[in-house]
Design goal:
By secondary structure, the protein is of the alpha/beta class. Helix content is 42%, strand content 12%. It is elongated and about 140 Å long.
Length: 345
């Protein structure tokens, strides 16, 4: 913020004064000393109407109360608290957060504990005070204790066991101000995203050092996810390689065109009809044929074979003896069954 002042010689000088900054830190809890002192300064006997709050004619800050579970605090929660803070020109925003026991009983289990949810809310820039263990239904005693002027929430009926709308009485008193829900974002939506990509998040946590026991994952499921992680890693590297080749494809095509003639010439020299490989194969085949079928000697191939007749007996030569089998039984003494023709009987 800038101010202007006149110097000794009459000139007007602009002096820049930094704006007053609010104490930076988390919002106090309702039982902290700072919150109790703020509450004691409020004269709750002065009731503030909507017209007074909207026209900024109220004699004190307007105390607006917003409540919720605020599990897995997200942008929808932050926008709701921003609307509650800006619903009137001068607002002191009190935010109530339900504890685990009440939430698990009436709504269901939460991802974050009550302490974590308390801390998330009190570190939001729009929050001035946090009420721990906030009630599900707002009674008059609670409103009096925290000196609440208005309650901010979305206008949809909020059911509870035996109650059609927990804000029905607040609306009847004229103390209700409506905020708008942020479409497309809620704690349920965030959890649905995690469940949808469950395997991916488990693989990520396993790769970061968490054990299967920490993630409540069985042995076979762990091995399956680890294998899938390696498959995805190979796919990623393959895609990177394809992308790199795709970026250089024009350069590779140009080089191929430049060297295509040399490639074709070398190919024909090796694999053509008169190429080196064909010549090598012909020589090898001939060598194998020679090794298997050696040639005959020249004297055996060229000279005709001669045959000598069997010797014939001459008239002067004595006749050959012939042996014939004796028709009678062999002599017991000799046992010889064969007799010559010249032998006497």
């Amino acid at each position: 913020m800038g101010t202007r002042k006149r110097t000794r010689n009459g000139d007007i000088d602009d002096e820049v004064i930094p704006p007053k900054r609010r104490n930076i830190g988390p919002a106090p809890f309702s039982h902290d000393e700072a919150a109790l002192e703020e509450c004691d300064r409020i004269d709750y006997s002065i009731r503030i109407t909507k017209d007074m709050a909207e026209s900024d004619t109220a004699p004190r800050p307007v105390r607006v109360y917003a409540d919720g579970i605020y599990d897995m605090f997200h942008s929808g929660h932050a926008r709701q608290l921003m609307q509650a803070k800006r619903v009137f020109p001068h607002v002191y925003l009190i935010v109530g957060v339900c504890d685990d026991e009440l939430t698990h009983k009436l709504k269901g289990r939460t991802v974050m504990s009550q302490e974590e949810r308390y801390e998330m809310v009190r570190h939001c820039r729009y929050v001035d005070e946090v009420v721990t263990s906030a009630p599900w239904t707002l009674e008059e005693d609670f409103l009096q204790q925290h000196k609440i002027d208005f309650v901010a929430h979305d206008d949809l009926p909020y059911n509870a066991p035996g109650v059609e709308d927990v804000y029905k009485d607040i609306k009847a008193k004229g103390m209700f101000v409506a905020t708008q829900r942020t479409e497309g974002i809620s704690t349920t939506d965030v959890i649905a995203r995690i469940i949808r990509d469950y395997d991916m998040y488990v693989r990520r946590n396993l790769s970061r050092g968490y054990t299967a026991k920490d993630l409540n994952v069985g042995y076979m499921k762990e091995k399956k996810l680890q294998f899938q992680q390696k498959v995805d890693l190979v796919k990623g590297k393959t895609k990177e390689l394809i992308d790199k080749i795709g970026d250089k494809r024009h350069e590779l095509i140009q080089k191929w065109e430049e060297n295509s003639r040399e490639f074709v010439s070398n190919f024909l020299e090796l694999f053509g009809r008169d190429g080196r490989i064909n010549q090598w194969w012909t020589e090898t085949r001939q060598n194998v044929v020679r090794a298997i079928s050696p040639p005959h000697p020249p004297d055996e191939e060229d000279s005709p074979r001669t045959y000598s007749p069997l010797p014939r007996s001459s008239p002067e030569s004595p006749p050959l003896k012939r042996r014939h089998r004796n028709s009678t039984s062999a002599s017991p003494a000799t046992g010889n069954q064969w007799l010559d023709e010249d032998d006497e009987y």
